[in-house]
Design brief:
The complex is a heterodimer of chains A (183) and B (273). Chain A has 183 residues and is mainly α. Chain A folds into two domains: 1-106, Rna Polymerase Sigma Factor, Chain: A (Orthogonal Bundle), CATH 1.10.1740; 121-183, Arc Repressor Mutant, subunit A. In chain A, 70% of the residues lie in helices and 0% in strands. Chain A starts with 10 loop residues before the first helix and ends with a helix. Chain B is α+β, with helices and mostly antiparallel strands and 273 residues long. Chain B has three domains: 2-58, no CATH class; 116-163; 168-272. Chain B contains six helices and eight strands; from the N terminus they run H-H-H-H-H-H-E-E-E-E-E-E-E-E. In chain B, strands 5-4-7-8-1-2-3-6 form an eight-stranded antiparallel β-sheet, with helices on one face. In chain B, helix 3 packs across helix 4 (37-56). The longest helix of chain B has 62 residues, at 102-163. Classes of the chains: A mainly alpha (183), B alpha+beta (273). At the A-B interface, helix 2, helix 3, helix 4, helix 8 and helix 10 of A face helix 2, helix 4 and helix 5 of B.
């Protein structure tokens, strides 16, 4: 199926269709969220083939345990990205993945992925330079560590050598910057 | 409101959205969100901004993944009521192999061969016995045939004697010593042959020490023509020594092997031409 026929539903329609286990819901779910979820997964894993396996596992888990999602607890994407992140972290902590020795330095990570793949950016991405300028380097590094690398904020504090409180503050500031940017 | 503001500013909501909270913190955040719409709104903003950030950093998985992942969802985790177009093919196209029983085949083949061998040997023995019988029969038939052939030859020979006009038949009559005795002598002066016909002879049987001796009288002198035995078994014609001329024939009983001169007192039969 070509990208031109991508299906897009509102989040409410999608959740309803998923609850009714309609085929179109699965296709819409994939078309709407596969790239964003894969962006998170592939940044954590750094190996396209393994990341694609994890993406599949992610969709399987989303589809399989959808009854445990409730709109009251938050947005659909938040729930899904946490599933994807947890599966990706499980994968890189698994024995067979560690044996591959393919882990990369954090600093190279995002640019490495972007160089490795022909990342398809959305039109809004024209503002990415502005976004990068919006986020201070220390805000971006902590946000990327936690969001795209699967670090806990405690691990991130160790990694960056800053107190836990500072981590929390920077994280909050980074997200506030994002909110400003996207609004 | 101050409490809400402090709670928002603590950073716990960001950690909650990032899944970075403990079970108790999670329950606490959810309780606060229910209680304070401002916290719910703040959470929603954080989620939206992170979702947007993820969209900004989206990476397209390869084209092939879409069908692969959708198929895995629809075939493995759907139930067929919802996705009738994706019914799993359950047609069993596996063709089971028949168990090849080589062992049994050879067992039976060996048994068959053995049975055939036994039957063949039996048949061979039977045929051999028949052949033996046939050979025996053939040998006896050949002997009989030979016997008949000999007999026919002999009789032909004997018949020849009677047919031959050159043979003269002389019946020797019994003397006083043995009046009942008779012996027929056939003589061919041209062929110098003398035969005696034992079939018509009627001579007393001689014992082991004596033999009959045939004599020819030529110009009054006896000439030895050979000895013979008289018994009931011999019925053929006997060829004696040859002589060209004779006046009479006589038979005397002599010691076995014959005598140079006849004992005239032992003369059994005599006949003259």
């Amino acid at each position: 199926m070509s990208k031109k026929r991508k299906i897009s539903l509102s989040e409410e329609e999608l959740v309803l269709a998923l609850r009714q286990r309609e085929k179109i819901a699965v296709e819409a779910l994939y078309d709407m969220y596969s790239a964003s979820l894969f962006g998170v997964i592939v940044r954590i894993i750094n190996d396209t083939a393994i990341a694609e396996d994890v993406l599949q596992d992610t969709f399987v888990k989303i589809w399989n345990s959808f009854q445990s999602y409730s709109t009251e607890k938050g947005r659909l994407f938040t729930w899904m990205v946490n599933i994807a992140r947890n599966l990706a972290i499980d994968k890189i902590r698994s024995k067979d993945f560690k044996n591959q020795g393919k882990n990369q330095e954090l600093e190279n990570n995002v640019t490495f992925i972007d160089e490795q793949r022909n990342t398809v950016y959305k039109p809004e991405l024209l503002g990415i330079k502005e976004l990068v300028e919006t986020l201070k380097p220390e805000q971006k590094s902590i946000l990327d560590l936690v969001y795209f690398k699967g670090y806990t904020h405690v691990e991130a504090a160790d990694e960056l050598g800053v107190p836990l409180g500072t981590i929390k503050t920077r994280l909050r500031m980074a997200i506030i910057q994002l909110r400003k940017h996207f609004n | 409101m101050e409490e809400v503001k402090t709670y928002i500013e603590s950073g716990i909501l960001e950690l909650y959205v990032l899944g970075e909270v403990t079970q108790e913190e999670r329950a606490q955040v959810e309780a606060m969100a229910l209680k304070h719409p401002a916290i719910k709104a703040e959470l929603d903003e954080i989620e939206k901004s992170l979702e947007s950030y993820a969209f900004e950093n989206a990476v397209e998985p390869s084209e092939s993944q879409r069908d692969k992942i959708l198929n895995s969802l629809l075939t493995n985790f759907s139930d067929d009521r919802n996705f009738p177009s994706h019914k799993v093919e359950t047609t069993d196209n596996v063709i089971p192999f028949e168990r090849i029983s080589n062992g049994n085949f050879y067992k039976y083949a060996f048994a068959a061969c053995f049975a055939l061998l036994v039957v063949s040997i039996a048949a061979l023995v039977s045929v051999y016995n028949h052949l033996e019988q046939s050979n025996t029969l053939l040998a006896s038939l050949q002997t009989q045939n030979q016997h008949f052939s000999n007999r026919v030859n002999l009789m032909d020979h004997e018949l020849g004697v009677f047919r031959d006009p050159s043979f003269k038949l002389l019946k020797l009559q019994g003397t006083k010593k043995s009046p009942a005795s008779v012996l027929t002598v056939a003589w061919s002066p041209a062929k110098k042959k003398v035969m005696i016909d034992m079939a018509n002879a009627n001579m007393p049987a001689n014992d082991q020490d004596h033999q009959y001796q045939l004599w020819a009288l030529v110009a009054g002198k006896p000439v030895d023509l050979g000895v013979f035995d008289a018994d009931t078994a011999s019925k053929d014609m006997k060829e004696m020594k040859s002589i060209a001329s004779a006046d009479a024939f006589a038979v005397t009983l002599e010691p076995r092997g014959g005598s140079p001169a006849p004992h005239l007192d032992e003369m059994m039969v005599i006949g003259k031409f």
